[in-house]
């Protein structure tokens, strides 16, 4: 057989007898089947025998171009005749296969134990890096004919790995029907290539992926203790649910009995130490650390730790190749004692109440103590035990001493892990020179294994140091009391009060500062200004002084001049100038805060009550056996205050405190002034408050039953602080001196409240004055009074005065009540008068301020009003009355007013009638506004200037109205009895506006509604010719008119009252009957003693009688007025 001109197989035939046929391969070809003799001569040419031979060409043949088969072409049918061979199938080349390996999680060598229908039949691949395929160099040739038989690839098991994927593709698929798809199936460790995918020219690449299985191994290490112990674990996320570390010795790591536990990729793993055999797991502390030994591949470089019995490896950490080892380290617990030692120093040599405090403790994370605890304390030189026998007050600790060594034992208490045991407080006596002493102590036992379970010897070299403690305490001079910021007092029990102690505002006593060296009932105490001395006096009337720095008591002297029936001294205080004050009832003494502390002779304090309160304030024992407790305190101005707590014989202790200021202390007869009542919390019975002292935060009072009050003098409020019935106190003291004084301020305002419209004040308006008096200080003001006068140019409106909105009765004769001075007070003040409470809300003027109002009416001609008030009160900084001036607001009235001139009284029986020209009768008047007037001018008036009835009006600014032009003087009007007569006026206005006018037609001295001739008639700037009718009922003769001009309508529609602008002009006019008026002609000149006369033609009538009167007008013109009997008249 020749392929591409090269012979690859030579075949001979069998003769069916002795000659055997053969087929031989050449040039690298492979024969897959030998030739079989055939004696069957029945085959025909071209038939396919059942036995066939295959020739596989070498791999070097990549394509077939020509194939030739040489054989005998003529069949004779005889022996040895040639049998024709032909190609049954023709393949271009044999199918081949390579194996590729990918490993995940680690690298390694992987073997393939069997390949069927292929040669060679085994293979091996070694990976160099994870997730990177490596192809074997071995090329496997598939021996089965294409499409005839499947090919299988079997992988040998590799420990720690799992075959997770396998598939093949045909690298020559583009040239056959396999294309680019993958194929092959996996069952266990066997990959099968289907027969259908085996083509004559296929080259298969089969990739097999192995994944390293993650593992978790448990390790156990025990620290501390002795012997072995077995520990049990529960597991989740692994192939085992439990594990055990059995018989684990101390200090040697032991692997769990499971060894390596396998995990599932992407599934979290949890390990929990669940129990131990003996001792129990609670006797250990646990620490876990999980480390991935394959972290270089997995990236799990950070160890996972836990301080509990459970550790969790997150799902994200369980990846291919993860190899965790989780080591549980259990440390045996036992009590770990320590001791803390403190003192209440620094101390002063000789002082009492010095203590050492020892606090045992057990470290957190250990076991509770068991058995007896022992504390040893070696006292330094000069410090001795302050008790005999067993130290009291230490619970189950029993503390005894021998020499300087104190031994305390406790077999009852246990100290839990992380807790402190009960304190041991050792009272000690202090002696020796100033310096620093160090006290050493130690602790042991209770199950603590250190130092063989016993307390080591205390001292500077004490070991182990954790069981040792020390404290250094300094000896110094006793510091002065911090009495400017803290309360101090005398305290004790119901039978005696001998301890001086500090008192917090939560009613808690501080340590005893000193004990008064007498068993008498001590009730009065004061502290020096520097806090270095304490003064006390008891029922023996002896003044005693305690020197704080030296811890010594001195007897200063005995009280003289006291009244035994007044009881024991209760009240004592020292002022900022160093003067001491002592009192009982209304008896009073002084003393000095410096040696020799001389007591003065007795003085008597007097008090006269003006408060108006019930019960009446008092501070002394009375003949009715009324009495008061209470105490002194002093302010920054050295004013002495007494806060008294009355006890009435008929009503017991009262639920209030009364405040008094005692003045005239340097004189022979000091006096007291009442300064306020402060209600206290009520109970049955009411507490008795005997101790009073001042701090910057307020005034404080202590009751006999431990009641504590805070008193705010500014707001006049009393606040109950916590009550401590064990604090039986009789007095309080400080060296704080608050600034307590009133500070009176006032404001005075005035406002127009009645009268004219608008904001301009004019004569006749009502003004309301408001005076607000405020106490902006820190103490109620007493003796407060106001004196104020009525402003000049005004008249007081009787009955208009108020105090805090309440009416104040006028003084005799309707005089404003504060003209002569009168007491004022805050609203709601319980006192009768004269007290002004402190006000802390300046924006609210109705709570504590005294508000006084009164009204006045502005008189005519007044251009401005003002006045000055005076306030008087007691200023405690001086003790004498103080005055302050009330500010003086000015109410300015408009001086630019124009008034009229018409008469204010008619003649005869009509004399009460008036045209209302004066301010007093609300006369017509206009505020002068530049450029708004009648005629050319307007002159300001202080009031109306009425002319007598019958006289002409000659005001020079009455130049805006002309009547019936050229009508003569006075202005001439005309009328008729037979009908209304039209008259003409020319009105000259400076600007456009409105005109109202009246003519008194019936001459009754009034401008009435029927007299109005113009009603808000519009006029323009310049001359305006207007007409009006004179009615037939008019009485001829001299009468008066009023013209009012304004720029707005409706503001001058009345003949009286104020108008905001414009002008009023009044005129005298003469009204003539036009039928009886003769024409004056050829009248002679007037001369002395000569009357110019002319006669009415009717005078010749026999039915009329002529009456004649000669008169002279104001300009000197002579007139002759004739009256006829029928009432007509004319001018002649």
UniProtKB/TrEMBL annotation:
Pfam families documented for this protein: DUF11, GEVED, SpaA_4
Every SpaA-like prealbumin fold domain range: 98-212, 216-332
InterPro entries in UniProt: DUF11_rpt, GEVED, OmcB-like_DUF11, SpaA_PFL_dom_4
Highest rank taxon of the organism: Bacteria
Domain GEVED: 994-1069
Position of the signal peptide: none
Domain DUF11: 750-870
NCBIfam families: B_ant_repeat
Protein name as annotated: DUF11 domain-containing protein
């Amino acid at each position: 057989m020749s392929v591409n001109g090269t012979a690859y197989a030579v075949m001979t035939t069998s003769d069916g007898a002795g000659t055997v046929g053969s087929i031989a391969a050449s040039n690298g070809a492979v024969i897959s089947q030998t030739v079989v003799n055939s004696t069957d001569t029945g085959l025909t040419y071209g038939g396919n025998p059942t036995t066939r031979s295959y020739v596989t060409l070498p791999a070097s043949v990549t394509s077939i171009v020509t194939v030739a088969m040489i054989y005998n072409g003529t069949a004779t049918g005889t022996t040895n005749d040639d049998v024709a061979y032909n190609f049954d199938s023709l393949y271009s080349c044999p199918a081949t296969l390579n194996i590729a390996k990918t490993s995940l999680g680690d690298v390694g060598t992987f073997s393939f134990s069997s390949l069927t229908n292929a040669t060679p039949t085994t293979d091996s691949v070694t990976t160099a890096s994870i997730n990177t395929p490596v192809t074997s160099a071995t090329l496997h040739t598939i021996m089965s004919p294409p499409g005839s038989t499947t090919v299988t690839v079997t992988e040998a098991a590799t420990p720690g790995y799992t075959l997770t994927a396998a598939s093949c593709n045909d690298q020559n698929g583009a040239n056959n029907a396999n294309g680019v798809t993958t194929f092959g199936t996996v069952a266990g460790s066997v990959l099968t290539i289907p027969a259908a995918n085996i083509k004559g020219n296929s080259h298969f690449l089969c990739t097999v992926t192995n994944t390293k299985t993650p593992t978790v191994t448990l390790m156990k290490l025990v620290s501390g203790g002795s012997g072995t112990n077995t520990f049990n674990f529960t597991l989740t996320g692994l192939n085992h649910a439990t594990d055990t570390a059995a018989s684990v010795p101390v200090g040697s790591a032991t692997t769990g009995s499971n060894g390596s536990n396998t995990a599932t990729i992407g599934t979290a793993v949890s390990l929990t130490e669940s129990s131990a055999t003996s001792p129990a797991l609670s006797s250990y502390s646990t620490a876990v650390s999980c480390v991935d030994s394959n972290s270089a591949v997995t990236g799990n470089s950070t160890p996972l730790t836990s301080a509990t019995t459970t550790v969790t490896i997150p799902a994200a950490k369980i990846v291919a190749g993860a190899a965790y080892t989780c080591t549980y380290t259990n440390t045996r617990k036992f009590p770990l004692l320590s001791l803390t030692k403190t003192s209440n120093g620094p101390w002063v040599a000789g002082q009492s109440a010095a203590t050492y405090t020892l606090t045992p403790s057990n470290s957190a994370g250990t076991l509770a103590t068991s058995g007896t605890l022992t504390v040893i304390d070696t006292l330094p030189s000069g410090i001795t035990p302050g008790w005999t026998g067993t130290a009291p007050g230490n619970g189950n600790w029993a503390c005894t001493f021998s020499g300087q060594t104190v031994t305390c034992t406790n077999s009852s208490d246990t100290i839990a892990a992380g807790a402190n045991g009960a304190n041991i407080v050792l009272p000690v006596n202090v002696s020796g020179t100033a310096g620093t002493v160090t006290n050493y102590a130690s602790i042991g036992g209770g199950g603590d294994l250190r130092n063989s379970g016993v307390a080591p010897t205390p001292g500077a070299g004490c070991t182990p140091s954790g069981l040792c403690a020390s404290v250094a305490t300094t000896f110094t001079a006793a510091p002065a009391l911090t009495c400017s910021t803290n309360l101090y007092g005398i305290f004790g029990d119901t039978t005696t009060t001998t301890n001086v102690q500090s008192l917090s505002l939560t009613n808690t006593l501080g340590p005893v500062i000193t004990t008064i060296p007498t068993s008498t009932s001590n009730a009065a105490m004061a502290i020096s200004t520097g806090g270095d001395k304490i003064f006390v006096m008891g029922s023996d009337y002896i003044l005693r002084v305690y020197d704080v720095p030296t811890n010594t008591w001195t007897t200063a002297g005995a009280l003289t001049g006291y009244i035994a029936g007044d009881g024991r001294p209760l009240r004592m205080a020292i002022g900022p100038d160093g003067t001491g004050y002592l009192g009982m009832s209304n008896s009073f003494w002084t003393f000095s805060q410096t040696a020799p502390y001389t007591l003065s002779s007795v003085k008597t304090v007097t008090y006269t009550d003006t408060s108006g309160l019930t019960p009446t304030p008092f501070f002394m024992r009375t003949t009715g056996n009324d009495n008061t407790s209470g105490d002194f305190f002093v302010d920054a101005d050295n004013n002495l205050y007494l806060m008294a707590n009355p006890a009435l014989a008929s009503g017991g202790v009262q639920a209030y405190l009364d405040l008094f200021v005692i003045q005239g202390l340097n004189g022979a007869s000091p006096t007291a002034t009442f300064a306020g009542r402060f209600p206290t919390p009520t109970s049955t019975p009411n507490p008795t408050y005997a101790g009073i002292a001042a701090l910057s935060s307020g005034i404080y009072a202590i009751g006999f039953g431990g009641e504590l009050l805070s008193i705010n003098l500014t707001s006049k409020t009393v606040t109950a602080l916590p009550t401590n019935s064990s604090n039986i106190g009789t007095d309080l003291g400080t060296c704080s001196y608050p600034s307590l004084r009133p500070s009176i301020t006032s404001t005075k305002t005035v406002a127009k409240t009645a009268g004219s419209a608008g904001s301009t004040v004019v004569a006749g308006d009502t003004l309301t004055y408001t005076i607000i008096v405020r106490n902006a200080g820190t103490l109620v003001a007493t003796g407060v009074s106001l004196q104020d006068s009525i402003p000049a140019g005004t008249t007081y409106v009787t009955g208009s005065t108020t105090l805090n909105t309440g009416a104040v009765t006028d003084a005799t004769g309707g005089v404003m009540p504060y003209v002569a001075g009168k007491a004022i007070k805050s609203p709601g003040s319980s006192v009768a008068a004269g007290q002004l409470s402190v006000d802390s809300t300046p924006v609210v003027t109705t709570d504590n301020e005294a508000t006084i109002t009164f009204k006045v009416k502005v008189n005519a001609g007044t251009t401005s009003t003002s006045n000055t008030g005076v306030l008087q009160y007691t200023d405690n900084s001086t003790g004498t009355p103080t005055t302050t001036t009330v500010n003086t607001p000015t109410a300015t009235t408009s001086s630019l007013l124009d008034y009229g001139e018409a008469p204010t009284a008619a003649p005869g029986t009509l004399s009460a009638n008036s045209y209302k020209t004066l301010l007093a009768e609300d006369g017509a008047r206009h505020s002068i506004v530049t450029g708004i007037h009648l005629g050319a001018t307007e002159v300001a008036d202080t009031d109306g200037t009425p002319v007598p009835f019958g006289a002409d009006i000659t005001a020079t600014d009455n130049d805006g109205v002309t009547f019936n032009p050229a009508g003569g003087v006075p202005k001439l009007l005309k009328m008729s009895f037979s009908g209304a007569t039209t008259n003409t006026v020319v009105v000259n206005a400076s600007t456009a506006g409105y005109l109202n006018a009246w003519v008194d037609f019936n001459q009754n001295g009034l401008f009435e509604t029927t007299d109005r001739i113009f009603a808000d008639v519009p006029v323009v700037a310049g001359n305006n010719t207007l007409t009006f009718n004179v009615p037939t009922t008019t009485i001829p003769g001299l009468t008066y008119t009023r013209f009012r001009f304004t720029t707005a309508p409706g503001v001058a529609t009345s003949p009286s009252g104020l108008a905001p602008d414009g002008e009023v002009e009044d005129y005298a006019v003469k009204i003539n009957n036009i039928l009886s008026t003769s024409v004056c002609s050829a009248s002679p000149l007037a001369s002395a003693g000569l009357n110019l006369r002319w006669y009415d033609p009717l005078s010749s009538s026999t039915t009329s009688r002529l009456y004649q009167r000669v008169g002279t007008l104001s300009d000197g013109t002579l007139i002759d007025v004739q009256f006829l009997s029928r009432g007509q008249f004319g001018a002649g």
